């Protein structure tokens, strides 16, 4: 009986030692953590989007491309005068990519005599915005080594032929963000 107790006690001691050995194999590891702080992007509108002057005797569209190309091919619209694309400059962190966000919806340009009752003849729709940096590859641009970039914006105005003569103006919002 003494041998049975000894073997039993030895078995319990060996089992306990094996159970404790798994805790002895625990391990730890460390991981690195980083954060990059970027300069705030500063976007400045440098020039106004200007479609020039036009004589309108019917409906049509006039497009000013972001490269400055004017398409005034509507039969009932004759364009003249100086045009200009909207030019923007950006400052931020050197060599970082950013995305240009153009308006997704149309903007209304209004004559100084605009009222809701005369909206048809005192407003022009501006839409189809394009950027010199968003061609067919997407609206991303990389800031240069000094942290600067420039881009131009164009668009399309749609006329219905009932517009009164005078200046039509409005605003549109462009934003930039790091990619």
Element layout with pairings:
Blueprint: H1 2-24, E1 42-45, E2 53-56, E3 60-64, E4 70-71, E5 77-80, E6 86-91, E7 97-101, E8 107-111, H2 119-122, E9 123-131, E10 140-142, E11 148-159, E12 168-169, E13 175-178
Antiparallel strand pairs: 1-6, 2-5, 3-4, 3-11, 6-11, 7-10, 7-13, 8-9, 8-12, 9-11
Rg, nearest Å: 34 Å
**Count of DSSP E strands?**
13
Shape: elongated
Number of helices: 2
- Give unreliable regions as ranges: none
**Helix share bin:** 10-25%
Strand content: 35-45%
Description:
This protein is of the alpha+beta class. The radius of gyration is 34 Å and the shape is elongated. It contains 2 helices and 13 strands. 15% of the residues lie in helices and 36% in strands. A hairpin with a 5-residue loop joins strand 3 and strand 4.
Give me a quick take on this structure.
Helix content is 15%, strand content 36%.
Label this structure with key terms.
2 helices; alpha+beta; 13 strands; elongated; 3-stranded antiparallel beta sheet; 179 residues
């Amino acid at each position: 009986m003494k041998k049975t107790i000894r073997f039993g006690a030895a078995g319990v001691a060996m089992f306990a030692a094996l159970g404790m050995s798994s805790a002895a194999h625990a391990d730890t590891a460390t991981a690195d953590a980083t954060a990059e702080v970027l300069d705030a992007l500063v976007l400045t509108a440098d020039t106004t989007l200007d479609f020039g002057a036009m004589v309108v005797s019917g409906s049509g569209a006039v497009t000013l491309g972001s490269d400055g190309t004017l398409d005034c091919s509507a039969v009932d619209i004759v364009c003249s005068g100086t045009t200009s694309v909207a030019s923007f400059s950006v400052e931020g962190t050197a060599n970082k990519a950013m995305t240009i966000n153009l308006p997704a919806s149309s903007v209304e340009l209004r004559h100084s005599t605009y009222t809701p009752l005369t909206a048809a003849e005192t407003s022009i729709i501006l839409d189809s915005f394009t950027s010199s940096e968003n061609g067919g590859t997407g609206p991303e641009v990389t800031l240069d080594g000094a942290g600067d970039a420039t881009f131009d914006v164009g668009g399309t105005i749609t006329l219905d032929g009932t517009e009164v003569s005078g200046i039509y103006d409005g605003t549109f919002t462009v934003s930039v963000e790091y990619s």
